[in-house]
Specification:
The chain has about 350 residues and is of the alpha+beta class. The chain has helices spanning about 20-30, 80-90, 105-110, 135-150, 170-185, 190-200, 245-250, 270-275, 280-290, 300-325, 330-335, 340-350; strands at about 10, 40-45, 50-55, 60-65, 100, 110-115, 210, 220-225, 230-235, 240-245. α5 runs parallel beside α10 (about 300-325), α6 crosses α12 (about 340-350) and α7 (about 245-250) crosses α10.
Length: about 350
């Protein structure tokens, strides 16, 4: 896998995301003492918060901070990431150990937090090329286990009772991402206009509030190098209290995503690959979370359409940051170009909801 496609690869720190390494080292000395020189590299993956690998005397840490420059309202909430990592520590959901948080922008230019570096494998393509059918089946079973484990956690018991509003999550998300899309809109996209009109009028009945990751993709999971076991779920920027079915539908989007739009499973013969069908995968999740095997008619398809809309809004924000010059990835413009085809796919899903 090339560095271009490997989200775990590191590169020299981009000029737009440079930090004063001396000032950062002095700040760290008071919290993680060490006389050795600090080296900083930037992870090539990620489109939102710049993420860095810090190394000193054989120890490695990950620093994640807000990007510099003008930002969309409520975005890049690294303080919330730090909080949820602490809340989930020791739970059935594996997360990196959170070490320290800094809201003093003079240290690194923007607020940031530090967490442990978790070594392992990150898979980029949900079709898992190069693996055996048995390995693919085990990976999908493990992903299903972990996202179900997240969704059965009691937010109150985890100390996250105030981590987000509990009512009308999807309706509020539609409103939020419509505003985010308008704030970063670069051109008119008819399918987005259709979704902005259609989605608020077709929201399914509300669900009990649960902890949602918001971006539970295969490349946000670090697997053990020797076992097909998840060692850490990363990138919690969008986590909140919300609708667990919607969160799970986002995770399932690759089943509806053709290779021509973004890496996905649509059109593949899954059984010989060892990958469960969408129906099998959904049923396994429902069993694990103790839900009825039946969903309201059209509900899951609605959540797929909503999540494609949400993804298109996120990608539009990436494109806007690329134009402003403060995007976290050098491939931001390419990612932003997917806004229209993702929106078109979302509207196609919406038209199929009955």
């Amino acid at each position: 896998m090339s560095a271009r496609n490997d989200p775990a690869a590191t590169i020299p720190v981009r000029e737009a995301h440079a930090m004063d390494s001396g000032r950062l080292a002095r700040w760290l000395d008071d919290r993680l003492p060490g006389a050795e020189a600090l080296t900083i590299r930037q992870f090539s993956g990620g489109q939102s918060n710049p993420t860095y690998l810090l190394s000193r005397a054989g120890d490695r840490y990950v620093l994640r901070r807000k990007p510099p420059g003008a930002l969309l309202p409520s975005a890049h909430a690294v303080d919330r990431e730090f909080r949820i990592l602490n809340a989930l520590a020791g739970s059935a959901v594996p997360v990196p150990r959170a070490l320290c948080y800094c809201d003093d922008a003079s240290v690194a230019g923007t607020p940031f937090y530090l967490m442990e570096y978790v070594d392992g494998r990150i898979f980029w393509d949900p079709a898992l090329p190069g693996l055996t059918p048995r390995e693919r089946a085990a990976i999908y079973e493990e992903m299903n286990r972990v996202i179900a484990a997240l969704h059965v956690i009691d937010p109150d018991a985890a100390g996250l009772a105030d981590f987000g509003r509990r009512e009308n999550y999807v309706a509020r998300q539609i409103e939020r991402w419509s505003k985010q899309y308008r704030a970063s809109e670069l051109e008119r996209i008819d399918s987005m206009e259709q979704l902005i009109d259609w989605l608020p009028r077709h929201v399914p009945p509300d669900e009990p509030a649960r902890i949602t990751h918001g971006d539970f993709r295969i490349d946000n999971l670090i697997f053990d190098r020797h076992e097909l076991r998840i060692r850490a779920v990363i990138d919690w920027e969008l986590a909140t209290l919300g609708n667990s079915l919607s969160d799970f539908a986002y995770h399932c989007m690759p089943y509806r995503m053709p290779e021509s739009v973004r890496k996905g499973l649509a059109g593949l013969d899954l059984a010989p690959l060892g990958i469960p069908s969408e129906q099998e995968y959904v049923e396994r999740y429902l069993e694990r979370t103790g839900r009825s095997a039946q969903l309201a008619p059209g509900a899951f398809d609605f959540y797929i359409a909503f999540n494609l809309f949400r993804l298109a809004s996120i990608l539009q924000g990436v494109a806007a940051r690329a134009r402003l010059g403060n995007a976290s990835s050098e491939h931001a413009t390419e990612a932003g170009s997917l806004t229209r085809p993702i929106a078109d796919l979302g509207w196609a899903q919406a038209r199929g909801v009955h």
